[in-house]
Batch of 2 targets.
Target 1
Amino acid sequence: MKSETMKSPYETFAGDSDLHGVPIAVEGVGPFGGSELISEPLVTGNKTYADVDRDIAFHVENFPTRRWWICFFIAGSMLGLLLFSLATLFYVGEGVVGINHPVGWGTFIVNFVFWIGIGHAGTLISAVLFLFRQKWRTAINRSAEAMTLFAVACAGIFPIIHLGRPWFAYWLMPIPNGRGPLWINFNSALAWDIFAISTYGTISAVFWYVGLLPDLATIRDRATHPWRRKLYHWLSLGWTGSNRAWKHYEAAYLILAALATPLVFSVHTIVSFDFATSIMPGWHTTIFPPYFVIGAIFSGFAMVLTLMVFMRQVFNLKNYITINHMEAMAKIIMLTGMLVGLAYSTEFFVAWYSGSEYEGFVFRNRAFGPYGWSYFIMFTCNAIIPQFFWIKKIRRNPYTLLVIAILVNVGMWFERYVIIVTSLHRDFLPSSWGMYHMTFFDWSILIGSFGLFFTLFLLFVRFLPSIAMSEVKGVMDPEVARCRPEDDASEEA
Amino acid sequence: MSRSDTTLGVFGYVCTPDEALAAAKRIRDSEYTRFDVLTPFPVHGMDEAMGLKRSWVPWMTAGLAATGILAAQVMMVGIMVLLWPMNFGGKPFMAWPSFIPITFELMVLFAGIGTAVIAIFAGKRWTVPQPPVLNVRTGATVDRFVLWISSEDPAFDREKTAEFLRELRVRDVRPIDEEDRDVE
């Protein structure tokens, strides 16, 4: 039994059906004896701190369910397809994919930009929302950061296979060598990209691991087997929960967030420089950096939303990832969707206003030429479909959220397709115009990269706590969540 | 001397952050200095309650960031101007604006990794000896706010310190001995 008298207004919230997405009024606690508005709880169901550990660590401590194995089998098969495709690609050569004159940047760069964009929402949730003190991030930041890491892993494959001779990938790094010595050209946006992506991957991993330390210690303290205890003790670097450690930890976490915030903007800015510093009409625009960054956040949030719809359902985490969390993400998708739509419109306006006939042609061709269908998919999915989120019922229904999030992901993949393919396929000389035909291997590498992503994500939810337990505890009401040794004693008696 | 030679310290727990803050303030104002509060999550105001100064880690970050900037500049200027000067359309060898992105990235890389490593070390070493958490379940990573006074404290006395903690309404106060290290 919990205590008889209600101590906190949050005790009445059992689940999603009690949440309405608006502040609640508590009678008699205002400064002049009136009611006071407080926000709804982030954790429902009268959970205690110990319940948090039980509910979240359960999935780490128990053998996975049949559903997990089915998902893992499907994802693993897709990963196998990726390995097969890459092996074929390396053995036969780049000819197996559809990349050819005039579209020399095809599927690899489309997928690279797509995956890097997916990764950006994880850093946004963990770093930017941390700086803005958005407490709802605590339930989703761990899995969003994991998503970042895995998306960067997927993205990292593509520039390397795009090289054509991937076994020379180390030539991209400025290492002393016997080829002259021959050095890379630091004036090239592609050289900036190497540093941006590798720094981003490294810092994301560090940020993620630092965030994991207290939770690994929790798993250690719950473990019964001595080896498991030792393993997690070692992984948590001997975390005890000391406030003298928390002091430095919090300072470091804040700094990492402050470093990761400009980093995430810089990474996609530099990715956009790969295009913007060229002189191709359709690429050579100053709008590209903000346009790419917003698009990245937009697509990344859609991916987080997709994963969370499944995770909260399958892992029974609806008390932690509540419908209010989902609504908050839907609102960000709606906002960024409008910004993306604004960017599309601005591009068109500038193409007309600049008076450049090449720029004007590329944009007319983009929307009404042979690839008009892809522009139509892009514009509909990204700029129009998220507008349904103005309706509250749609924002708070997992099914509509899932459908819209998947459509946004489709739309964002096509955005990169539109930018790359439509700009390249008809350039200055009509005699060198052509079309881009994706082959089986273009598709299999795309599908396979999803396999890699989902395989890694499924392993993550199996072996590590998928919600930041220590951070969730920090946003709970202590009056509800506290330990109650007297009650335990009386229960046992 | 009796068993206190082998005593590592005394600990007990409270159930809410507010109780932990109140108890920490009382210990801070007492004669004990080598004490710690072990919490499941960072408690707002605990640093003041324990009388701790601000973390010095940000100063390290500043130094590391400067190192990263310097390393990037030395590398790029060295390569582009001294080791391999190349003429790109008559542009200057030291085209500093195009060195900015990599300078920024290396600043973040150095500062980020260094800050994490230093902060973890700072919390592990150069601090109060911690209870042997591998063998003694303190509950501090679950739901308990543990108050711990190390036997390194000059004022430490096995019985008196335990009595002092009990006076602060700390629950389940007990000493940890050297032997407890080996308990599984």
Target 2
Amino acid sequence: MRKLVIAVTLLAALGTGPALANSLVSPGPRGKIARSNMSVSPAGEWNRLSLKAGKNVEVWTLDGPELNKVTFYGGIAVGQPLVREVNKKNAPLPRVSANMLITDIPAILETTYRAQFNASQITIDSQEPTVVSGHKGIAFTYFYVRPDDEVQRKGEAVGAVVGDRLYLVTYEAPAIHFFDKDESKFRQLAATLKF
Amino acid sequence: MTAGAFLRAGLVAVAISVAAPAVAQEKTGTKPGFNLKPGAARIVLMRPSVHVGAQSTGGMYEPNADWTARARDHITITLKEMQATLGNEVVIYEEGPGPDAALATQYGNLFGTLADSVIEYQFFKGNRLPTKKRHKKDFDWSLGTGMAGLPALRGADYALFVNTYDAYGSLGRKALQVVGLLAGVPVTSGEHRGYAGLVDLRTGELVWLNADRRMGGDVRDKDGAEKRVRQLLEGFPGRPPAQPIQPARGEKGS
Amino acid sequence: MARFLLAAAGVALLGAAPQRAPLPTYSAAYEPRTVDERGMWMEADEQERRLRDSPLVIRDEGLNRYVRGVLCRTVGEERCNTVRIYVMEVPAFNAMMAPNGSMTVWSGLLLRVQNEGELGAVLGHEFAHFELRHSLRGFKKKRTASDVGAWVAVLGGLANTDTSFIQLALIGSMFKFDREQEQAADLLALQYLDRSPYPSSAASELWQHVMGEADATAVGRGRKPKQRYTAGFFDTHPTELNRALTLGALAAKSGHGGDAAATAYRAAIAPYLPLFLKGQVGLNDFGGSEYILSLLAKNSGWNGDLLFARGELYRLRGNPRDLVSAAQFYGEAIKSGYSAPEVHRNLGLSLLRSGRGADAKAALTEYLRLKPDAADAKTISSLMQN
């Protein structure tokens, strides 16, 4: 019991203490994104957040993740969830499966958001076939509301399944003003995406 | 790393996290080169988010309706008076029912998210974003131009958002703090934070934001509320120096 | 008040008096009196202001009027007429009532109850918390417990002793108090039901479903089902089994019958069923969702909405055998007259993943024929070319 209390105290201290700093992403080619073979070549500066949403997940932002957020899922293997499960016992997440179709990519994102972020309102909007880094993939858009801030957000993403891995990059921002403001910067990233 | 070393590292982390809040609790950002428009500016005060309560010995927030109502009145009146002396007219946002109310709420939610982002990712180090650090002098945040379309904002120049949160330490909490000092268990008593922000309705830009994680002024009485509003308005943008200040049209002390 | 009711109910349970205990006198225009109470009302008013404009609220007058009607028939016109009801799109089992008289009902509750009687039992239970002004009592008790906890932590620092056990015991007292309140609310809700057109057995039946779903969720996630006979330390609510048994016994004693209005309930909920089912399927709770679907089907038969949702559930889990089952459920949905074009799309996608390319192509073609300008038309066409 005592050990548990100490552990909890330590965790609390580490949680509130100075986190690992966020780092600058300079323009130009950048590889090994999300600890994977993913690479992009941003035209402008971005910030890479120090937060770790999962082993092969990396988050970039311009003004803070609540205002504009690009998430790289770098080759999530079959049997793995998109992000680290915060409550494995009571809210397990859907997993990447071997015979996924491109239409299952928006579906796994939707279920992950419903289960992990209590996003009770999420709608996949448009879906278009596309070619991502030479692979057959999908480009799609969506809307969602998280109950914690009730800000209506829009999302846009490109993804593909290559071998037994899922590659996905999403862009999310408030539907008012922010989504349109930075959409072209996301599209520029997506256009240079390689994996 | 042995368990002991890990524990020591943890204790250092505790020490740092306790010491860190001592510096830089207040911060103001203004869009470079921004001045209020010449002449009397019409500023709409969006419904202020005011929470005043007590902090029980155990640290629980106890909302107090009387304190909150008094604080809301004091803050609103003081804001009007102070802006009147600057030659500005402050009008209270009138909310109508229907879809406009829902849109106004979305803007309110978005402003809260925006202010939190400025505070978290530009004002205070820790999570500060490198791009915001490198362009320290820049203050480039916006809500977009759509907000000006809300019926209640027509004809207005600026929208002012005010947010305060006060939890006054109860007697028990203060006693606990003193004993905690002796026992080496850090206990904070009371929590007073707030921010105020001004949006230029023509451009949608956030032209000024002032945030304070340790505010002064007891909002429960008139004098204290005046001190608080003065702190909230610190760094409030002025007019170009050549511009003579026009006397306010609004009645004083209403 | 709560203790009094418990005692009163205890007497009734022993069979001492066959007649119904009178309802407490209700004052509709209650205004908060103390500092704490006024503070809580103010916070509730602020929250209701946000709720009014929340994007998560289902703004449908018909649905709202219906839910209000069930509440009114349960607690009576005098009690219900000042209540404001907000139905929210949240797929979990919950309803709550704030001290200022605003009631929030989650869509997950509407999906789970089988008739007006069960819905009335839950709404009546929440109303009973409100009438007994429990949130204030809970607040005071919590403050006392957290005050003591803070002192124990600091004094423990002085004495350098391990105080963690004492702290846990104090936290336990906070939860236990809530449990007493839950029991008091259950009993008052039962008194409402006794005066309503609904049978008093509705409450107990609902808790049996809740237990069944919890077990199904556990099994679906590879855990052991466990319905405990005694309340666990951290359980805010009385353990469901206790609750079902106690409420069942009390209902039997009261013997109050009535029509639970299952048919009327199904008809009223039908337009929202697809939305509610979509939210439930998205929770990634295979066992629990399957339980809910079976329960609904037991009462209404496997209709198109339920079959389509079941297909979705299996397709999302996506094991090879699940895809075969999903295709079968979509097929049955089509046979039963389910007409949304998406059923052909999802049938096609399931078949495609099962390696049945020709059948898949036929289903997807049918989808595109029914919905040529679908937002995913190009994607579906591209899948057919593979």
